[in-house]
What does this fold into?
Amino acid sequence: MYIYSPCILLIMTAIVPITELRNTSKILDLSENEPLFITKNGFGVRVIMNIEMFDRIKEYMLDYELAESLRRSEKDGGNVDGFDFIKELKDDPVFR
It folds into this structure.
């Protein structure tokens, strides 16, 4: 699953070869405010980013998954009105 958010797409990205990983302070500086793409033989192999950005991306993914789950349940008719659900629970002898 890929999440495309305007906040993420507007970020400039840096690309460096894997040999640059020896210079850890440079790598940390480059990945402070933007994702840093690491390449090996000209092909992307890893992305390094700060924790805050990673947490934001996880939140976007969770929001997307929840919205997609709601959309599917509405389409399948799997949603139940909350008041009806509580009424059914109150009427259920197991919960009396």
User: Anything to note?
Assistant: The beta strands are 14-17, 36-40, 43-48. Helices lie at 6-9, 24-30, 51-76, 82-91.
